[in-house]
Design goal:
By secondary structure, this protein is an all-alpha fold. The chain has 11 helices and 2 strands. It has 3 domains: about 90 residues, no CATH class; about 55 residues; about 80 residues, no CATH class. Strands 1-2 form a two-stranded antiparallel sheet. About 10% of the residues are buried.
Length: about 270
């Protein structure tokens, strides 16, 4: 709900050491709110200048009539009732908002548990793959799909298991997990040499997926070899930089090949009619 009285914590009660900080906090919020008002949105920015108790009062009487969550998003149930409005003005949370938060926590806990179980299942499958027990892994995938045919794809599960097995087998350079927005961070990390190449990783995937009976997509081995070449020449590159440079080189090669083919066709002798 927020502190309504200086020096009082909603959790710990009265705290004398908070008294001297309250005026400073109010002044800081007032200054920050005034600075934000320059950029527009007078209502929201001016509200930042007020103490928590006044913010609650303004939120209760604002004109849209909706019950919103902590992020300002409206929740279901229609417009506010007069009882909810009165309670909000006094600083109380509407019952449906409390229920919404409770259900949301249950939903997140359920999702987290499903992710944990999926991770454990993939971990077990990866151990079977690395031990060469492909028949056992395949049987587990089939049983899982039979239990939940609507939501589970055994081929997608097999690919995840192979990825988990590869993470256990082939060392991964942390630099290669960074995206293009992390270039500055990549410059601070050490450059590791002698790591498995992109081609070797794709070969690892291909081998184990075929042993599991999982369909594999057509591979562009020329692209993987070009990435390996770029990485060997520029070990300090991030993955995004390697991919971009490899694509540029391949596009140049294709353009040269297309041009050469066009010139060859133009210079070829034409048969007389």
């Amino acid at each position: 709900m927020g502190n309504t009285v200086p020096g009082v914590s909603e959790i710990n009660g009265f705290q004398p050491d908070m008294l001297h900080a309250a005026p400073i906090q109010l002044l800081t919020k007032f200054i920050q709110g005034g600075q934000k008002m320059v950029g527009g949105d007078f209502y929201r920015r001016s509200k930042d200048m007020l103490p928590p108790a006044f913010k609650k009062f303004i939120d209760a009487y604002r004109g849209d009539g909706k019950v919103v969550d902590s992020q300002g998003k409206p929740i279901g149930g229609g417009d506010r009732t007069w009882g909810e409005l009165t309670g909000m003005a006094l600083g109380f949370q509407p019952e449906r908002l409390t229920e919404y938060y409770r259900n949301n926590r249950i939903k997140k806990a359920s999702e987290a548990e499903h992710k944990r179980l999926d991770a454990k299942f993939n971990e077990d499958l990866s151990n079977d793959i690395l031990a060469g027990r492909y028949d056992v892994a395949k049987q587990k995938l089939q049983e899982r799909q039979a239990q939940d045919p609507t939501n589970y794809d055994m081929f997608a599960g097999g690919r995840k298991a192979v990825e988990a097995a590869m993470e256990k087998t082939l060392p991964r350079d942390l630099r290669q997990k960074l995206n293009k927005s992390d270039t500055q961070l990549a410059q601070l990390l050490p450059v590791n040499l002698g790591l498995p190449t992109e081609t070797q990783r794709q070969q690892f995937r291909e081998t184990h997926l075929l042993r599991l009976g999982v369909p594999t997509r057509k591979k562009d081995w020329e692209k993987y070899r070009m990435r390996d070449q770029v990485e060997a020449e520029n070990p300090e590159f991030t993955r995004a930089e390697i991919y971009r440079e490899a694509d540029m080189r391949l596009n140049k090669i294709k353009k040269v090949q297309t041009l050469a083919s066009t010139v060859a066709d133009a210079s070829a002798p034409q048969a007389l009619p």
